[in-house]
Design a protein that fits this description.
alpha+beta, 32% helix, Creatine Amidinohydrolase, Creatine Amidinohydrolase, Chain A, domain 1, 450 residues, 2 domains, 19 strands, 21% strand
Length: 450
């Protein structure tokens, strides 16, 4: 199956040169749909049984109505289903003894080719009664439902649907109901082998769109504004047939009297500014493609007349940001909680004289995804709930953080704000498509001009 997917990728995913940039060609809609469905089938057949058994759940029931979809259900719908239909109920049952899962849809039709429709309207006109019949026949030890106080991703069962279901469910089964929080989070956070074939090129697309936006192709110092670059990014993504999962941010630090407050990039967007020589630019940007997301932050410097390199004091500041990335990812270990990783990394940063702020998060089906939170931009102590969740293998993260570095030449501190997407497995942590190691120069050096 991996070989099938790879052959599709290599056939369709050539490269196209646009200006100075070489961008991977985006798959057409039909090939995207086939790829999404192949990945989903693989997750159902290989990943879901393992997760259900590890979490001790023999029946998982997911209930959702059209246009009010459970976040988990959205990741389980086939590519041609843009939404649930009327009320869609999915039932996954593990019969044990390493037998395949029963994957059922309590619906009038099959859900794609992966879930068999089990609602015979002539025998059970009531959909809830059809669900109860399945439960009685399977007689599970545990019935997991998607409700959670910690993760919105795992809290997709609405008040109405829960009430209707419990009214129909025989009292003998009520004590078997439990939260599917852990199972739902693990389904969402775990990346399959097939997804990790795709993810590097998705991250490459995102990187190269930034590279293009932070270049003389887009920026004319003294004319171009930060909002011009923001909307260039939005339009470029649309033109490529992709989506953004959040509105990008582009902001400036420069040698003036203004104090830069990085918190405004979270709590209040910076106003429009004209980009000038000597400016240090910062972008926060992410795309959604093939149901996976990116989240990246990088820097560029506008060369002053006569300058041929980024000033050494800014490059050294940038290196401190790279060092903080290393400090954080070196502490990734299966079973550690997000709060434990945060505390250890901040302690080491302090010992090395780095003024650090860490707010890293899982990434995958969602931009701010389910899994262990490693700090928050407004909480550098301990994140209740999501920060207590442990690190598992086969999970992806946006390594998001910043360092504050005094710059004598500017008579103030600058913030090096970085974010790169990475993956953790039995071999440790790695960046999915590398990371920025040097500040971009605008304009770029030309190989033909010395």
């Amino acid at each position: 199956m991996i070989k099938t997917l790879l052959s599709v990728l290599f056939f369709f995913w050539g490269f196209v040169t646009v200006g100075a940039q070489t961008l991977p060609v985006v798959l057409n809609e039909r090939t995207r749909a086939a790829t999404v469905d192949e990945i989903l089938e693989d997750r159902f057949e290989r990943l879901l049984p393992r997760l259900m058994r590890e979490e001790g759940v023999d029946m998982w029931v997911i209930i959702s109505r059209e246009y009010n979809e459970d976040p988990v259900m959205r990741t389980m719908l086939p590519s041609t289903w843009i939404a649930a239909r009327r009320r869609t109920i999915m039932v996954f049952y593990d019969p044990g003894k390493d037998k395949p899962l029963d994957k059922l849809a309590i619906a009038r039709y099959d859900v794609g080719t992966l879930l068999k429709g089990e609602w015979d309207l002539s025998a059970n006109p009531d959909q809830w009664e059809a669900l109860v019949k399945v439960i009685q026949e399977k007689n599970p030890k545990k019935i997991a439902l998607n409700y959670s106080t910690t993760y919105g991703h795992a809290d997709g069962l609405t008040y109405t649907e829960q009430g209707e279901f419990m009214k129909k469910l025989p009292q003998t089964f009520h004590a078997r109901i439990q939260s599917a929080e852990r199972l739902a989070v693990r389904w969402l956070e775990t990346r399959s082998e097939k997804e990790m074939v795709m993810y590097p090129l998705i991250c490459r697309l995102s990187h190269q769109i930034i590279d293009e936006a932070f270049s003389e192709k887009v920026i004319q110092p003294g004319v171009t504004t930060t909002e011009d670059v923001v909307w260039y990014l939005r339009q470029r993504v649309t033109d490529l047939g992709l989506d953004t999962w959040f509105h990008p941010t582009v902001d400036i630090q420069r040698a003036d009297e203004a104090k830069f407050d990085h918190l405004r990039t979270f709590s209040k967007r910076p106003g429009t500014q004209v980009i000038l020589p000597g400016d240090l630019l910062h972008v926060d940007f992410g795309i959604t493609y093939l149901r996976l997301n990116t989240d990246q932050q990088q820097h560029a410097y506008i060369l002053k007349p006569g300058e041929k390199e980024v000033p050494d004091y800014l490059q050294k500041a940038f290196q401190k940001g790279n060092r903080l990335q290393d400090i954080l990812t070196e502490r990734f270990k299966t079973g550690k909680t997000g709060n434990e990783i945060l505390a250890e990394a901040l302690q080491q940063a302090t010992q090395e004289g780095i003024t650090a702020s860490i707010y890293s998060h899982p990434i995958g089906f969602h931009g701010h995804a389910a899994g262990p939170a490693i700090g928050m931009w407004d909480n550098q102590k301990s994140v209740k709930g999501t920060g207590d969740y442990p690190l598992f293998k086969q999970t992806a993260y946006s390594i998001e953080l910043n360092v504050s570095v005094p710059i004598k030449e500017w008579n103030k501190s600058v913030r090096i704000m970085l974010e790169e997407d990475g993956y953790y497995d039995e071999n440790g942590f790695r960046y999915i498509d590398g990371r920025q190691r040097n500040i971009f120069m605008i304009p770029r050096k030309s190989e033909s001009v010395r």
